[in-house]
Write a structure and sequence with these properties.
The complex is a heterotetramer, with two copies of chain A (340 residues) and two copies of chain B (327 residues). Chain A has 340 residues and is an alpha/beta fold. Chain A has helices at 19-48, 63-71, 86-91, 96-103, 137-151, 169-180, 228-245, 272-279, 283-293, 297-320, 327-333, and strands at residues 78-82, 127-131, 157-162, 185-191, 194-195, 198-199, 219-224, 249-254. Chain A is built from eleven helices and eight strands. The chains are: A alpha/beta (340), B alpha/beta (327). The structure holds thiamine diphosphate (2 copies) and magnesium ion (2 copies). Residues 162-164, 192, 194-195 of chain A line the site of one magnesium ion. The site of one magnesium ion has 6 residues of chain D, from strand 5.
């Protein structure tokens, strides 16, 4: 099995035929990224107001990864993620209403208010869920890819996880099986430099996560996320490999989260200076500047009011929706009669 | 009806269901080319090919999780662990994913998967290879647990399991694999879950058992018959759902109960049955409910000590007599 | 006696024992630089340095096993899981190594290790993060299980655990960490295992509980007092060893028992206690033993449903009345 | 962390000062290897006679690995192994009597007859046990090395496992921790080409197991076992690295087992021809020829009768020893009072 490699992050050739096309695609990307950013900001506010409970892990700062990656997919392709799953859910096409309603614990949420922030599922968009056990979902994603190969349905599965998951057995076993059985899957490690409060240097003996691919003879790629087009192009390459030759790829996407690990995290483990430095590379802000520079200022204004409206509606929807009723508890535990 | 071995009954169940449904496949260590560590899948690779009879590397958490993911999107995997002991490294996959996905997805995704393997003690396989794992899994809502004691039930329950839309864990026994019994050939022969079988009718004491201990209980009943003690032996067949009605009806008749099964004394299936009986048949009981189980120690290798630690007919005989205040 | 929080009591226990014994160290995720996911180890890194307060990557099976190996050759590790839920990926290490090594080595090697973490439900942490894991582990011979309900017991039991030569699992509770109580300062203050505490003396009904549900049981007792029902509340403190004598003595007095604890209804610690009571105090019982536990479903995220699923004082009140035939 | 590498298996410079010294060392190695071979043959016979029960995994064909590896150790160094542990136990200095008595389930066995063939332990020789759960002992071995580093006792731990264990999480997590924390341990993968009935090619996506070291930035080595001196030299290098700089190493030792996986294995998965081919490289036979060629024929004859006597005595000892009594069950389960 040949292990292809790319570790530079130089700009790829423009995607799409013309600068215009590229600009309109950027508008689309920007809209999704903004929708995620705003959804997360509203979630944070709602959490502070006690309208959302439990753990809340925000995706702010990492939007370009999910948006760029999902742009490389067909609607019938699958995604599987972690507890930090709001961005992925929206990038895969889920309605913000379903997402916020779920965070608010409402029956109109994608998981009927039973799953919550960490467990967003949507069969209609092939979002196979956010999972709370680090590494536990990676073998599961390999199984989804196994099913695609078994059925020859030509679908590809993307599996997202943080760099903290790379040390756990689930990652290793899933990679071992995917490489051995040549499954059509792309493993995307979102390396945001921290596993909760622990920096990379204290969780891993190697800084380059993509090196792990060599252990499986798996194709790999590594990029420092600065540009959503770059993410799309690199993931598209791996997706094409999965779809055409049914070979897995491990992609390390170096990124950064602007908020704490979860709402309860004071974030003492990093300096404000470090955080500010990274915020300068905010892909959302950069996309916005690029749009203005590209002369899309007007469209941009429309888009932003539009997004605001969508968010407002979603928040209202979440607030006004009814809660799930007790009868759901047993009927969702088993398909068919309850077993006790 | 032809008489076949327990292991062949399991193979018939898998084979018939794989013929019936393209989505069903078998995956586990040595299930294919090696013909199964305990020969349960002998010949299946030749019949179905490597796509549907898949040899897995040693990565139980990995391939258990893989099976769960495949099931979420519509396949119907049968995952064989070489023994249930090795499922301990996949415990989280079964606890947190197989049992939870349906509810935490708001009912959007189901996990129609079967995990199966031999369970409990074998002959001197020692401390790490003799666990009665059903006691851990039976606690978990979202799972169904079966423990066939006869070839017919092995076939009928496993077929029902493969057609069930929920995760089902099938607890077999190495010491039962060679046992013969009559097994129906009807490809739609199914044994429903939650319906215990009265393996022996009796009026004096109810003995509740499952898996291979049913046979030990029947031995004990035969011995007790000579002493004019008429024991009713209930073979549970499935542990979740548990057929409480049959147990209670029997106790209402005998007024005495003994629970016999492999597994440590603390908690587990045995304690659950005791709890249900005392709660639902409190006024019927004429004596404390007795339990006969594995001694509260890891399994020793030495043959005599192993036999001492495992539940035996003699222990059931004593327990029955205690419940009759005849000890 | 100073009044301190449960989490500080745990820290005092670890700190005192680490001062007392060079071989004791703390290892787990975020225990050091982050000061503990739940701030239990706050300040310990500064005090003892990174050699003895070790931040681990996310590899529970790996560092649980590492702790067991270190214990075999004479260190005395305290392994913190961020929560007990995450021990599921290390289940095999605890079942097959920690609990077995002493016996399968013929007694040559002991494993003086403590595993500790918050357990059970927190506030809306959902399906995969709300498990009451003690029910799985209490079944296993070779392990000791403690579940402190008060700051004093948190300190005294954990200190005893750290000095014990066997693997001890300490089940804490996120919802107890901020609870205050008086805690002795004596560096040799130890609470022995296997001695339950009668948290409230009463004559009408015995309620057996552990960990945070002891407080819920006391609330229920206060409510029932207004109805002239005098409840005795037993705080088990340790689940293995289980103080059967204290339970039986109480039931011999009240003739009625209710078992209350987090965890699913099927089997587990609750069923084990029922089994012991009915066997050892059969003639003392005037009513079926009642159980109040988590509903038999995965934990839902929605706040109201979560509260419905978790054991509440109201449920204990009802169970007590049922046992008095007053429901 | 620099990853040193050696994948050739050319003969290293002669170990020891003179050819004479080398010859006498070879005598010593041969004696140990023969003792193991004969112990296994007698075990097989006893198993056939029903004197040994449960699983029995023979080490025949792989003797040079344990013997060469343990020759690179100090007596106070630690070893941890799998269920295929008789050879390791003897190579680490355990008496054959203790080993056979354990297999016979006698109280005079190293584990008092409670552990059996898969669980040989001996505190006196720092044999920390044979383990039955594939991969489960590898983190445990890392913990032993952790203790050595913690105490600065200068000891090194060798951890043995088969190539079948490389796909499981325990291997990955142990390597991750050992590399991250720089533990004085040597991971020795005995790649005997089969995991039970499954050949390498169907359990792993890469044939070169030592490649896995790269994922952790761990030092590695790879050898095809033909010579016990070579094994000693290569392991000694890794042991020196562990002792001096506290760095772990992954060594892949390609070897082959001449018997089935366990006694119940018919071995249909390989041809007699393949087996015969490998038997030509039997390191035991080769050592013997070398000794004769080296003119040690006389010493050899003595040695062999001596070994026979030792084996006979051990078998008699095992047969005549008493069985463990029930009182041992509870006292070995807990240190101190029983907890129920
Ligand atoms: C097996 C397991 N151990 C511990 C945890 C607690 N935990 C949740 S997220 C997290 C950090 C994960 O970091 P990373 O993988 O880098 O993802 P990120 O949060 O940075 O996106 C930890 C330790 C868990 N959920 N599962
Ligand atoms: C976790 C686990 N799964 C499965 C088994 C059953 N089993 C015992 S040995 C073995 C094969 C191991 O092969 P390898 O690691 O190459 O070691 P070898 O037997 O060749 O020395 C298997 C599958 C086990 N003991 N543990
Ligand atoms: Mg991270
Ligand atoms: Mg092998």
């Amino acid at each position: 099995m040949v292990a292809t490699t790319k570790t530079s992050s130089k700009k790829p050739e423009p995607v799409g035929p013309s600068p215009e096309a590229r600009l309109s695609r950027l508008l689309g990307f920007y809209r999704q990224m903004l929708l995620i950013r705003r959804c997360e900001e509203e979630s944070a506010r709602a959490y502070a107001q006690g309208k959302i409970g439990g753990f809340l892990h925000l995706y702010i700062g990492q939007e370009a990864v999910a948006v760029g990656a999902c742009a490389a997919l067909r609607p019938d392709d699958y995604v599987v993620g972690t507890y930090r799953d709001h961005g992925l859910a929206i990038a895969k096409g889920m309605n913000v209403k379903q997402v916020l309603a779920e965070l608010f614990g409402k029956v109109t949420g994608c998981s009927k208010g039973l799953g919550g922030s960490m467990h967003l599922f949507d069969a209609a968009h092939n979002m196979l869920g956010g999972y709370g056990i680090v590494g536990g979902h990676i073998p599961l994603a390999a199984g989804v890819a196994f099913a695609s190969k078994y059925r020859q349905d030509g679908r590809v599965t993307l599996c997202f996880f943080g760099e903290g998951a790379v040390s756990i057995g689930g990652f290793h076993e899933a990679c071992s099986l995917a490489a051995l059985w040549k499954l059509p899957i792309v493993f995307i490690c979102e390396n945001n430099e921290y596993s909760m409060g622990t920096p990379l240097s204290r969780t891993m003996s190697v800084e380059d996560v993509s090196l792990k691919a060599g252990a499986y003879g798996m194709a790999k790629d590594r990029l420092f996320v600065r540009d959503v087009f770059d993410v799309e192009a690199r993931v598209a390459e791996a997706v094409a490999r999965a779809r055409s030759t049914s070979e897995p790829t491990l992609i390390e996407a170096r990124t950064y989260r602007f908020r704490g690990h979860s709402m309860s995290d004071p974030g003492k483990y990093r300096t404000p200076a470090e955080l500010e430095e990274h915020k300068k590379n905010d892909t959302l802000a950069q996309a916005r500047s690029a749009l203005i520079a590209g002369g899309a200022g007007e469209k941009l204004a429309e888009l932003e009011t539009d997004v605001e409206r969508e968010i407002e509606e979603a928040v209202r929807f979440a607030e006004e929706s009814p809660e799930p009723t007790p009868d759901l508890l047993e009927s969702t535990t088993y398909a068919g009669p309850f077993a006790r | 009806m032809p008489s076949i071995r327990y292991r062949e009954a399991l193979k018939q169940a898998m084979t018939e269901e794989m013929i019936r449904d393209e989505r069903v496949f078998l995956l586990g260590e040595e299930v294919g080319y090696y013909q199964g560590a305990y020969k349960v899948s002998e010949g299946m690779l030749d019949k179905f090919g490597p796509k549907r009879v898949v040899d897995a590397p040693i990565a139980e958490a990995g391939f258990a999780g893989l099976g769960i993911g495949a099931a979420m999107v519509g396949l119907r995997p049968i995952i064989e662990f070489m023994t249930w002991n090795f499922s301990a490294v996949a415990f989280d996959q079964i606890l947190c994913n197989a049992a939870k996905i349906r509810q935490m997805s708001g009912g959007q995704f189901t996990v129609p998967i079967v995990f199966r393997a031999p369970n409990g003690s074998a002959a001197q396989v020692g401390s790490q290879h003799s666990h009665a794992m059903e006691h851990f899994y039976a606690q978990i809502p979202g799972l169904k647990i079966i423990a066939p004691a006869t070839p017919a039930d092995a076939k009928g329950l496993l077929k029902t399991a493969i057609r069930d839309d929920n995760p089902v864990l099938c607890f077999e026994s190495e010491t039962l694999y060679s046992v013969k019994g009559e097994v129906p050939e009807d490809p739609d022969f199914l044994v429903p879950f939650g319906q215990a079988n009265i393996a022996r009718h009796g009026k004096d004491v109810t003995v509740v058992a499952w898996s291979r201990i049913v046979n030990v209980a029947l031995d004990a009943a035969a011995k007790l018959e000579k002493e004019d003690i008429d024991v009713e032996v209930i073979d549970l067949r499935s542990l979740r759902p548990l057929d409480t009605d049959t147990i209670i009806a029997s106790v209402a008749k005998t007024h005495r109960a003994v629970i016999a099964g492999e597994g440590w004394p603390y908690g587990g299936v045995g304690a659950e049955i005791v709890d249900r009986i005392q709660r639902l048949a409190f006024d019927e009981l004429d004596a404390p409910i007795e339990r006969v189980q594995t001694m509260d120690v890891p399994m020793p290798y030495n043959a005599k000590l192993e036999q001492l630690v495992i539940p035996q007919a003699a222990g059931i005989v004593e327990a029955v007599k205690r419940s009759l205040y005849r000890a």
